[in-house]
Amino acid sequence: MIQLYDRDTLFEEVAFVAYHFGWSHNEVLELPHWERHKWCEEISAINDRMNDGEAPSRNEPNQGSILDDSEGTVLSNSLEDL
């Protein structure tokens, strides 16, 4: 069974991961949705910690979002809020 995802969310996830990791469009699209979603959360968590002046930690739960405001600041919403 093929599961479809919201097109806008897919575009946001691909752009977010590609921008932060420098991966190509095709590389990001080849990831399963759950993995692409997880990378978005991890990148957001790192951005949140860096914006707060903290060093990134692999042991902290992530609370970030792929969304940003007009100034490029990462907001602290989760992808589930989309």
What does this structure look like?
The chain is mainly α and 82 residues long. It has 3 helices and no strands. The protein has helices at residues 7-21, 25-29, 33-51. Mean pLDDT is 73; it is low at 62-82.
Task: Give a short synopsis of this structure.
The chain is 48% helix and 0% strand. It contains 3 helices and no strands.
Topology:
Elements: H1 7-21, H2 25-29, H3 33-51
Helix pairs in contact: 1-3
Q: From the structure provided, what is the oligomeric state, counting identical versus distinct chains?
A: single chain
Radius of gyration from the alpha-carbon trace, in angstroms: 13 Å
Q: Mind summarizing the main beta sheet? A: none
Give the low-confidence spans.
62-82
Q: Strand-and-helix sequence, N→C?
A: HHH
Question: What is the end-to-end distance?
Answer: 24 Å
Per DSSP E runs of 2 or more residues, the count of β-strands stands at: 0
Mean pLDDT: 73
Query: What would you call the structural class?
Result: mainly alpha
**Proportion of helical residues:** 40-55%
Q: Bin the strand percentage.
A: under 5%
Shape: elongated
Query: How many distinct helices?
Result: 3
Structural descriptors:
82 residues, mainly alpha, 0% strand, elongated
